[in-house]
Amino acid sequence: MSPRSRGRWDRGGDNExxxxxxxxxxxxxxxxxxxxxxxxxxxEATGAGQVMGLLGEAISTVSAARTMPLSSSVLVVKEELLExxxxxxxVLPDELRSARWLLKEREEYLARAEREAASIxxxx
Length: 124
Prior knowledge:
Blueprint: H1 38-46, H2 50-64, E1 66-67, E2 74-75, H3 78-123
Antiparallel strand pairs: 1-2
């Protein structure tokens, strides 16, 4: 959130997007450390989450901005918002590459599990 002081018309802490990372499903992997969520494991493995964090920061900046009287328009520091959005644009290709890698790993894992299940059924 911006270090600027809050204005008279500030909406305050009603930003529904502010803490999206904490609301993710936290299922655990079998081989994960005790107490580590799957989202934590995925983000560690892929470096993912930076774009979501930057977009959350942009949303917080706009949400915390002073509103114009009798309007839904807000005043934001142009340079601050552009810097956040430019950072997100630079990180996005890395995140997409990480997501593709994660999908490939998932497909390979499922294929191995299916082969193993078929092998077990043949032996039974």
